[in-house]
Design brief:
Aspartate Aminotransferase, domain 2; alpha/beta; 2 domains; single chain; three-stranded mixed beta sheet
Length: 422
């Protein structure tokens, strides 16, 4: 019997090209398996994708055990708030669990308009638009606004969604060291004539380090080099500023300082999704032409109602912001007393402890878990190969007792950590 030719073979040419149509044949997948084997050897069990029970608060239940939780961004304690939960339930009763269409056709409900007007009013802009994902918001907006003749300028610590949007746009990508505004000025002085439009993208609070952007310097760079300024406020709206309005309020600058206000609904606002706020022309352009909006289902009724009600609670109860700020400052103060060096500004709800080696970072996380402290490691490719860290999210619901119990354990286990990957 004649042997069957492999898929993809061309007998007429005397050449065969076996089809490798399984993902398990892909080099990145095989690299992942080698990484798993290395983790198993040096660390043991991984705790990624482990289910927890109940609301993602300052204490969670995991495998039946209560843990102090530093890996959730329920910053203001609004997820689980009875008023917000009831609003989501009411929306389901009225509209169902999905809007079941893109908004440009039959997916629009009145709650969408209410939420977008509330966001615009809260931030002091003319209009706003919501997307079903914060990640999608950056990817679709950046990739749609720019093209080959343009440039996206962002610092090297930027979120993956910013980098992905920049790459998909086809525009030139110009990067700089975070906070090095003089260095960026020099780069742009040399390169500004090489591109048509330039989009400078910053984060209000940087998600990996917890640093708060110097908006005044960013605005100066924008004006000097005729750029569009976009700020990702995923971790800054609802956490900084006297009333939670984010980086412009924190910096005491008018909302018009920023051309594109981007943010998420999944952090302080107890929901899911993303938004862009700005002038009417920008929002109209995105509403009718942005693929990630017009070809996507609309925000679900429950998520829309939850975010809308969370904004109302935030306006009514600004004390939540003051309590969060007090918790963040206390966390950093107690860390310094324990001899721990965290990245992140004192007013930020994010604090990162750089460990370096990924396996060592995962091992430290495991040892803290055994002590009732839940903080997940951030390793490559989310950060550089030698920049693995434990990232602590601080919330309004954390207590001084939790912080005081955490610091000596963390300091001890960090000191006992073996030098892996050296």
């Amino acid at each position: 019997m004649k042997k069957a030719e492999p898929h993809g073979a061309d007998p007429a040419l005397g050449v065969t090209h076996p089809r490798r149509n399984s993902v398990t044949d892909f080099a990145p997948y095989q690299n992942l398996q080698r990484r798993f084997a290395d983790i198993d050897k040096h660390v043991g069990e991984m705790t990624f994708f482990e289910p927890r029970d109940g609301i993602n608060g300052s204490v969670i239940t995991w495998r039946g055990q209560p843990l102090v939780n530093y890996s959730g961004y329920n910053y203001l304690g609004l997820c689980g708030n009875p008023e917000i939960s009831q609003a989501a339930k009411n929306a389901i009763d009225k509209y169902g669990t999905s809007v079941s269409a893109s908004r440009i056709v039959s997916g629009q409900i009145d709650l969408h308009g209410y939420l977008e007007r509330e966001i615009a009013d809260f931030l002091g802009t003319e209009d706003a638009i919501t997307f079903v994902s914060g990640y999608l918001t950056n990817v679709t907006v950046i990739s749609h606004l720019l093209s080959k003749a343009d440039a996206v300028i962002f610092d090297r610590d930027s979120h993956n969604s910013i980098m992905t949007g920049a790459r998909l746009s086809g525009a030139k990508m110009i990067t700089y060291a975070g906070g090095d505004w003089d260095g960026l000025d020099q780069i742009l002085t040399a390169r500004r004539d090489s591109f048509r439009r330039g989009l400078l993208v910053c984060e209000g609070v940087y998600s990996m380090d917890g640093n708060i952007v110097d908006l005044k310097r960013a605005a100066e760079i924008k004006e000097k080099h005729n750029l569009i300024l976009m700020v990702d406020e995923a971790h800054s709206v609802g956490t900084i500023g006297a009333t939670g309005r984010g980086i412009c309020e924190w910096s005491r600058l008018p909302p018009s300082t920023v051309d594109i206000h981007m943010g998420t609904l999944s952090k302080a606002l107890a929901s899911a999704g993303g938004y862009v706020a700005g002038d009417r022309g920008l929002i109209e352009y995105l509403r009718y032409l942005a693929p990630g909006f017009i070809f996507s289902v609309g925000l679900s009724p429950a998520d829309t109602a939850a975010a809308l009600t969370a904004l109302k609670v935030l306006r009514r109860e600004p004390s939540r912001l003051a309590e969060l700020r007090e918790r963040a400052r206390l966390f950093h103060a107690l860390a310094r007393e324990a001899g721990l060096v965290f990245r992140g500004d004192d007013g930020s709800p994010i604090a990162s402890l750089i460990v370096g080696d990924g396996n060592a970072c995962m091992l430290l996380s495991q040892r803290l878990l055994a002590e009732g402290i839940y903080v997940q490691p951030i390793v490559y490719p989310a950060v550089g190969l030698k920049s693995a860290r434990l990232r602590f999210f601080i919330t309004r619901d954390h207590t001084e007792e939790q912080f005081r119990a955490t610091m000596p354990v963390l300091a001890r286990e960090l000191k006992l950590l073996p030098a892996l990957g050296q």
